[in-house]
């Protein structure tokens, strides 16, 4: 192989490697929110995080936030959220329902391809505590099957619908080593009449009160999707740093 051909091949390989690198704040410029760092958890280690119900996420410092989005993926709205995150080089975790994984698999794959993490959030968002133990376990199995069909592995993280934990599923998730993600703060973004200004105000107040942590939002809600670009600016302008949670193994 001639030197030039070899050099060209090296350049191609290098370009490929660079393309695979995570997009960090520098790519969006210093004014973007960016993703300041990553906390990597080990697949299968389980645990339960978020001070509304459990211990803080290990290693998360004051002034740091983790973005989480529940109930998607759904057409249009999830895309809107993904576009806003991309524009700020911001990485989030999406807790997806099994029914939406089955119906909108391409969106779920897009979220992961764009560097986000994906966990699960029940099959069809029931009040799990009203179901029999067998029905709860069936819901988890169906949701994991939907996730596995798309991603080839079981989900490493779970958020309970309505944050309504049940002993049956807590035990099953612990046994499977699936991490339970509760929250540290929320902006109650499930009211259809909410405006962007209202959501921004709620987020600002919650950040002041809690000093950071795991934030719950809903990518399947139109007010949130419409507000998300503004909400990311609120986080940046208040000086909070975004942390992305990923899994290895
Ligand atoms: Zn939900």
Question: What's the arrangement of secondary structure elements?
Answer:
Elements: H1 3-20, H2 25-28, E1 37-42, E2 48-49, E3 64-70, H3 77-87, E4 93-96, H4 98-103, H5 105-113, E5 117-120, H6 133-151, E6 157-158, H7 167-176, E7 179-181, E8 185-186, H8 196-210, E9 213-218, H9 222-237, E10 241-248
Parallel strand pairs: 1-10, 2-7, 3-4, 3-9, 3-10, 4-5, 6-7, 8-9
Helix pairs in contact: 3-9, 8-9
Bound molecules: zinc ion.
Zinc ion binds next to loops.
CATH topology call: TIM Barrel
Q: Determine the number of helices (DSSP H or I, runs of at least 4 residues).
A: 9
- Give the name of the CATH superfamily: Glycoside hydrolase/deacetylase
Q: Which runs of at least 5 residues are low in confidence (pLDDT < 50)?
A: 1-25
Helix content: 40-55%
Judged by helices, strands and strand pairing, the structural class is alpha/beta
Terminal CA distance: 38 Å
Overall CATH architecture: Alpha-Beta Barrel
Strand content: 15-25%
Shape: globular
CATH class: Alpha Beta
How many domains? The number is 1
- Number of strand elements: 10
Largest sheet composition: 7 strands, parallel
